[in-house]
Amino acid sequence: MNKKNIIYWNNYYVSKNNNDKPSNFAKFIKKKYIKKTTKLLEVGAGDGRDTFYFQNKAKYIFAIDQSDVVTNNNKLKAKKLNFKNIFFKKLSSNKLQTLKNKDVDIIYARFFLHAINETSENKFLDIIKKNFKDNTIIALEFRTTKDVLKKKGKKISLNERLTDHYRRFIDINNFKKKLKKMKFKILYTKLGINLSKSRNDNPHLCRIVFSGRIK
After folding, report:
1. From the CB of residue 164, how many other CB atoms can be counted at a distance below 10 Å?
2. In the prediction, which pLDDT does 6 show?
3. DSSP 114
4. Nearest one of 64, 60, 30 to 209, comparing CA atoms
5. Is 26 helix (H, G, I), strand (E, B) or coil?
6. Phi and psi (nearest 5°) for 26?
7. β-pair type (106-110, 39-43)
8. pLDDT tens, residue by residue, 23-50
């Protein structure tokens, strides 16, 4: 994520009232994959709406985001609520390999992948492949090339747009081919609208769950 995008998100979280309701994706992942013993890493935690939802459903949650504003806010909230099993850190996804504790069962990222370019996406997947245990589950939700917002903003490339901030619309067929080439095992996929409807926004999303590595 470039500096302009980081500035955008810092300003966004300064002016935004926190949403305490978990996303539908978080509820889905909790029901299907999370146990009391689960150790979860959340990438691109934002205001922590899903992080705090997972608090009493997993053993511990380590959450990272590039916005220092929202990371500090989340730290204060966790301290105020006396949550001992949530840890927030300002960190880029490009530096996931620097985490001291990489013994996690699930890597969770909602609305993160479409906020980074494909170079960062490739590095994100490569870091997971090389640094996390084989049976780690990766759960992602992101905008696809069928999303209506692709028609808006300045065209940067075939699937990249710039409005007040950067978005990349992901071709799911190409993404799945990439996962298979990297020897990831796809466990679940769902595409469509009505997965995360909010006011006037009903994005076309992909939910995909895959496991770390196949030897």
Report:
1. 8
2. 63
3. G
4. 30
5. helix
6. -60, -40
7. parallel
8. 999 999 999 999 999 999 999 999 999 9
